[in-house]
Design brief:
Elements lengths: L33 E5 L7 H8 L5 E8 L6 E9 L2 H11 L3 E2 L2 E2 L1 E4 L4 H4 L21
Antiparallel strand pairs: 1-3, 1-6, 2-3, 4-5
Length: about 140
């Protein structure tokens, strides 16, 4: 497995506004500690995902999503960090990193209901038979 060297940085502090009122972030400023990891090789395990992402920051949990019946990987999973800075660093450093010789895709996992209802989403369809173009299904 490829080793990744990461320089840990102290997060910058942001001064409070002069009026003392801190406003809630809008949808474009949504901060999260949860990442979606897609395009996984079907043989990637939870421990491999943990080992890779834990090089970047403190990981709370990982999960490779699996078919309920067959227990085969669905090719995606989730990684949760203790703080948003580590999640942002992982997104920046590990997106398109090869794992089991296949580049992974890393994105924020938006659990905010307003973002989930925005109409922009990925649709996952399983159980479709492969058509090889030669007449077989």
């Amino acid at each position: 497995m490829a080793q990744i060297e990461v320089q840990h940085q102290t997060p910058a502090t942001v001064p409070a506004p002069s009026n003392g009122v801190v406003t809630a972030p809008n949808a474009n400023q949504f901060v999260t500690t949860s990442l979606y990891v897609g395009d996984l090789d079907l043989n990637v395990s939870d421990s491999q995902l943990y080992d890779l992402f834990n090089q970047v920051g403190q990981v709370v949990s990982v999960r490779v999503c699996r078919d309920l019946t067959t227990r085969r990987s669905l090719g995606y999973g989730y990684v949760n960090f203790t703080n948003p800075q580590d999640a942002a660093r992982a997104l920046d450093v590990l997106n398109f990193t090869p794992l089991n010789n296949k580049s992974i895709r890393v994105m924020y996992s938006h659990r905010d209901p307003s973002i989930r209802k925005s109409g922009t989403a990925n649709i996952f369809i399983k159980g479709i038979h492969f058509y090889d173009g030669i007449g077989g299904v």
